[in-house]
Design goal:
One of its GO terms (biological process) is establishment of mitotic spindle orientation. Belongs to the GPSM family. It is found in: Cell membrane; Cytoplasm. By secondary structure, this protein is mainly α. It has two domains: 144 residues, Alpha Horseshoe (Serine Threonine Protein Phosphatase 5, Tetratricopeptide repeat); 80 residues, Alpha Horseshoe (Serine Threonine Protein Phosphatase 5, Tetratricopeptide repeat), CATH 1.25.40.10. The chain has ten helices and no strands. The longest helix is centred in the N-terminal third of the chain and has 24 residues. 44% of the residues are buried.
Length: 226
């Protein structure tokens, strides 16, 4: 501020916002991220503007998750405050998405789609969540980003469960399992086995359900995860 470096001030405000978000001080975080946004717009800095919109989305997303954790409920059954907070997150992610499309930044589009999928899932809008996660999946494949691809399969599996499409969920969870083995991520592999066990229970294929729950058990024991 002393030397009149507006772009520097904007970046510093954004960093403060992200730090306050991690500390759980969400309302103060929004103020700092908004400052980042205002200065970026004033300076015609489109990249900074996109980043600020994404960061504000993240703050509202984190606040919404934080509020809903205290009330352990199924997606979609949310108190008004939580719903409004997640809707705000969604709006900022949408604004970020249209800007990064304009900028032609595919990686940033992928991140926006993933977060839009997650917020819509929490809001109980499962069909919208699926559409966003499919976009996320396509971009992850474009970049050969296996970890993001794995997350997208997981999220697609979860959303289809709530639409009662258990057979489709099972296919997505199998892809999650396959990728977690490729990535040598045992915790995620265990989680995928657990999801498959539950899905096959819903499909009333109990032999398969047992098979996957046993796999889950073995990995949990290997990891010493009580």
């Amino acid at each position: 501020r002393t030397i009149g470096d507006r772009i520097g001030e904007a970046k510093a405000s954004g960093n403060l916002g992200n730090t306050l978000k991690i500390l759980g001080q969400f309302d103060e975080a929004v103020v700092c991220c908004q400052r980042h946004l205002d200065i970026s717009q004033e300076q015609g800095d489109k990249v900074g503007e996109a980043r600020a919109l994404y960061n504000i989305g993240n703050v509202y997303h984190a606040k919404g998750k934080h509020l809903s954790w205290n009330m352990a409920q199924d997606p979609g059954y949310l108190p008004q405050e939580v719903k409004e907070t997640l809707q705000k997150a969604s709006e900022y992610y949408e604004r970020n998405l249209s800007l990064v499309k304009e900028l032609g930044d595919r990686a940033a589009q992928g991140r926006a789609y993933g977060n839009l999928g997650n917020t819509q899932y929490l809001l109980g809008n499962f069909s919208e969540a699926i559409a966003f996660h499919k976009e996320r999946l396509a971009i992850a494949k474009e970049f050969g980003d296996k970890a993001a691809e794995r997350r997208a399969y997981s999220n697609l599996g979860n959303a289809h469960i709530f639409l009662g499409r258990f057979d489709i969920s099972a296919e997505y969870y199998k892809k999650t399992l396959q990728l977690s083995r490729q990535l040598k991520d045992q915790a995620v592999e265990a989680q995928a086995c657990y999801s498959l066990g539950n899905t096959y229970t819903l499909l009333q294929d109990y032999d398969r359900a047992i098979e996957y729950h046993l796999k889950h058990l073995v990995i949990a024991q290997e990891l010493g995860d009580r």
